[in-house]
Amino acid sequence: VSVAQAALERGISVLAIDSDKQKLDKIRTGETYLNEPGSAEELSFALRQGTLELSDKIERAAEGEILFIGV
After folding, report:
1. Using an 8 Å Cβ cutoff, are 32 and 40 in contact?
2. Residue spans of alpha helices (H) in the chain
């Protein structure tokens, strides 16, 4: 997520994919598991602006130009 946030701060659109639908739903509602100040607000803003898109469909990874895989 921190790489995604850095990209968003630079105006790069991000498609975040996770198999955990509950985690994605929490991010959509402004919650985050990160302990970084302001991260929930930044993610919420990016969702509203359309620069952050969330999906649970792994096949969407083919849409990306650069892929980061986190475990």
Report:
1. yes
2. 2-9, 21-28, 39-49
**pLDDT tens digit string along 31-58?**
877 777 788 888 889 999 999 999 999 9
Paired tokens of 33: 């598991």
Residue 11 structure tokens: 């105006």
Distance, CA of 1 to CA of 6 (rounded, Å): 9
Residue with tokens 């994919």, as numbered in its chain: 17
pTM (predicted TM-score): 0.81
**Tokens of residue 60, six digits:** 């969407």
Q: Which structure tokens are listed for 17?
A: 């994919």
What is the 8-class DSSP label of residue 52? E
Continuous segment of H or E residues that includes residue 16: strand 14-17
CA 20 to CA 11: how far, in whole Å? 26
